[in-house]
Amino acid sequence: MASETGPEDIPARFEAAWNAHDMEAFGRLFHADASFVNRFGTYWRGVDRIVAGHARIHASVYSDSTLANAAPDIDRIGKDAAILHFWSRLSAGQAHPEGPHQVDTIILAVVTRREGEWRIQALENVTLVNPMTGAPVLRDAPLP
């Protein structure tokens, strides 16, 4: 079934699936052969592994978390391919061992359209940190 969405809709769809803790909707964001590198450097190949990795954390440490994704910076590299960069703020809740806190990441996603559907082919998520200390920082906070 052809989708009316475009690459610019991926961050909002990602946010909505995360915030609903809906792993079926999360899985529909990715092509079957997609790859995903999480913010800790874990690499998953294939939508089943991507979903399984996220299902574990959504059933535990991120069960009460939310994401807020910014609008993407889009580089179209063809009529059926684009590169997205977008900021993502994770707000962890009480379920996280560190308790409530926030983490900013920058996401790089390569998205492609196949059979009318825009989905993620490859995604990498990098935590924003102070380069001098390695401590996580929020993007709107001044570096110490």
From TrEMBL:
Pfam families, A to Z: DUF4440
Domain spans labelled DUF4440: 12-120
Listed name of the protein: Uncharacterized protein (TIGR02246 family)
